[in-house]
């Protein structure tokens, strides 16, 4: 066994156990040694969270999260470990002794790939590892439960971004996510349509340096006679790979647009494209529900401040009061604290707990280049490809895309 926090001369660590005390799981130690020799380490729960963000964690193929009845009080921490491992594309085997089915269920829903009871049955860990190494359909964001099928009428997947407060970065995420999806693979790139539904102050056109067009307003005010051609003509092309419906050139009274209008626009876009990315206004409008219902993934973007926290709470209450699918929201924290900022990390945790939400995605602060990139009308990939924010969004696009293709193959 190797301490997980040190390198061992180029023989990178392939796996880790994560437990309160690995000595409680001596059969696991034996099996790990038999399968991996020296190439594994052991971590405590808190250590694991810090370790995932370190470069040494990049070689990790899987972690074995071993828990017993005593750890059940700490389920949210266990859940967080699983979520973060999944975010880093690390597989998770859950090993459990004396844990209630309800807790197990909760952890498996967090995305654990395999479950093995403890004491470990002979050969069971090895088999679980083999099963995990087959191409897997589960290593993907939990919210995207709706199948995404690609076919003749494309029935593209709908990804929506809404900021929970002004300026939290919704347009930045929408624009860059759309561009990363459009460029996700050289051959066989998916077709992507970005729609700015922040109809009044939308800034997609600014961030991609596209003019706002009058035809957009005409189309929106008469969607009943909109056909595929009318829709296509209202779109603009960014660098030959991304189609964009900017917000209209004139300020639209939000009430002029009905849920039916929005439904038609979204349906038309989904027929024509593999992916449709929507930037929503911060305010709730009477067609917000339409978009929420149609979305495959709905990102609710927030920052680590009181404004976001209070708005998140209001949104949660509003959706629950209307019996709308609150659980569809995937909370994403922008300008998230670095992993070295332990104080910041615990504030994130507390924010999630006090709001009763799980913050599934964290996007780092990318500094000035992010604003500059928007001012120059370019996605980050084209102006600051190494920016940490760009990297995270690129990863997100890859994971959303792999989810789509896995499902298409299965269909
Ligand atoms: N992770 C980040 N790192 C650095 N700068 C960021 C980040 N996210 C957003 N920004 C910057 O913050 C500003 C606001 O971002 P953006 O316009 O995307 O927010 P928004 O939620 O769409 O705002 P609005 O409410 O006006 O629609 C922009 O200048 C953008 O470049
Ligand atoms: Mg915006």
What share of residues are in beta strands?
15-25%
How would you describe the shape?
elongated
**pLDDT < 50 stretches:** 136-151
Q: Tell how many strands the DSSP assignment holds.
A: 14
What is the H-and-E element order?
EEHEHEHEHEHEHEHHHEEHEHEHEHEHHH
What's the N-to-C terminus distance?
Answer: 43 Å
- Name of the level-1 CATH class of the largest domain: Alpha Beta
Oligomer: single chain
CATH topology of the largest domain: Rossmann fold
Number of helices: 16
What is the CA-based Rg, rounded? 23 Å
Bound molecules: adenosine-5'-triphosphate, magnesium ion
How is the biggest beta sheet arranged?
Answer: 8 strands, mixed
Class by SSE composition: alpha/beta
The largest sheet has its strands arranged as 9-10-8-11-7-12-13-14
Question: How much helicity do the residues have?
Answer: 40-55%
Q: Domains counted in the coordinates: how many?
A: 2
Query: What number is the mean pLDDT?
Result: 88
CATH architecture of the largest domain: 3-Layer(aba) Sandwich
Give a verbal description of the structure:
- There is one protein chain.
- The protein is of the alpha/beta class and 411 residues long.
- The protein has two domains: 2-133, Rossmann fold (3-Layer(aba) Sandwich); 157-410, Rossmann fold, CATH 3.40.50.300.
- The protein contains 16 helices and 14 strands.
- The strands form two sheets. The protein has an eight-stranded mixed β-sheet with strand order 9-10-8-11-7-12-13-14, with helices on both faces. A six-stranded parallel β-sheet has the order 1-3-2-4-5-6, sandwiched between helices.
- Helix 4 (101-109) links the parallel strand 5 and strand 6 (114-117).
- Helix 2 (45-52) runs parallel beside helix 3 (75-87), helix 6 crosses helix 16 (388-410) and helix 10 packs parallel to helix 11.
- The two termini are 43 Å apart.
- Adenosine-5'-triphosphate is lined by residues 163, 166-172, 198, 203, 282, 334-335, 363, 365-367, 370-371, 374, 389.
């Amino acid at each position: 066994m190797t301490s997980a926090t040190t390198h061992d001369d180029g023989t990178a660590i392939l796996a880790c156990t994560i437990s309160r005390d690995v000595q409680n799981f001596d059969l696991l130690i034996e099996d790990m040694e038999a399968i991996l020799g020296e190439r594994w380490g052991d971590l405590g729960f808190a250590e694991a969270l810090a370790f995932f963000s370190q470069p040494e964690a990049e070689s990790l193929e899987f972690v074995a999260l071993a828990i017993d009845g005593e750890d059940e009080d700490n389920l949210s921490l266990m859940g967080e470990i699983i979520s973060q491992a999944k975010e880093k594309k690390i597989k998770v085997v859950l090993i459990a002794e004396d844990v209630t089915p309800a807790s197990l269920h909760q952890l498996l829903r967090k995305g654990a790939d395999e479950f093995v009871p403890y004491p470990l049955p002979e050969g069971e860990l090895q088999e679980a590892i083999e099963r995990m190494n087959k191409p897997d359909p589960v290593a993907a964001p939990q919210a995207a439960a709706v199948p995404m099928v690609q076919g003749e009428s494309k029935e593209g997947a709908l990804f929506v971004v809404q900021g929970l407060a002004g300026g939290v970065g919704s347009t930045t995420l929408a624009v860059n996510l759309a561009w990363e999806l459009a460029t996700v693979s050289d051959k066989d790139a998916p077709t992507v349509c970005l729609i700015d539904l922040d109809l009044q102050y939308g800034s997609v056109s600014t961030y991609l340096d596209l003019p706002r067009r009058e035809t957009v307003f005409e189309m929106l005010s008469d969607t009943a006679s909109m056909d595929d051609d009318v829709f296509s003509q209202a779109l603009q092309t960014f660098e030959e790979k991304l189609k964009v419906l900017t917000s209209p050139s004139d300020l639209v009274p939000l009430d002029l647009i009905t849920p039916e209008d929005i439904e038609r626009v979204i349906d038309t876009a989904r027929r024509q494209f593999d992916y449709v990315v929507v930037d929503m206004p911060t305010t709730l409008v009477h067609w917000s529900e339409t978009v929420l219902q149609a979305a495959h993934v709905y990102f609710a973007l927030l920052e680590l401040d009181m404004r976001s926290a209070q708005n998140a709470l209001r949104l949660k209450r509003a959706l629950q009061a209307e019996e709308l699918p609150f659980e569809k929201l995937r909370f994403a924290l922008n300008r998230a604290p670095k992993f070295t900022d332990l104080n910041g990390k615990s504030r994130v945790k507390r924010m999630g707990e006090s709001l009763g939400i799980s913050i599934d995605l964290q996007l780092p602060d990318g500094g000035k280049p992010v604003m500059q990139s928007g001012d120059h009308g370019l996605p980050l990939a084209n102006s600051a490809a190494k920016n940490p924010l760009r990297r995270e969004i690129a990863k997100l696009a890859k994971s959303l895309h792999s989810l789509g293709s896995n499902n298409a193959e299965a269909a």
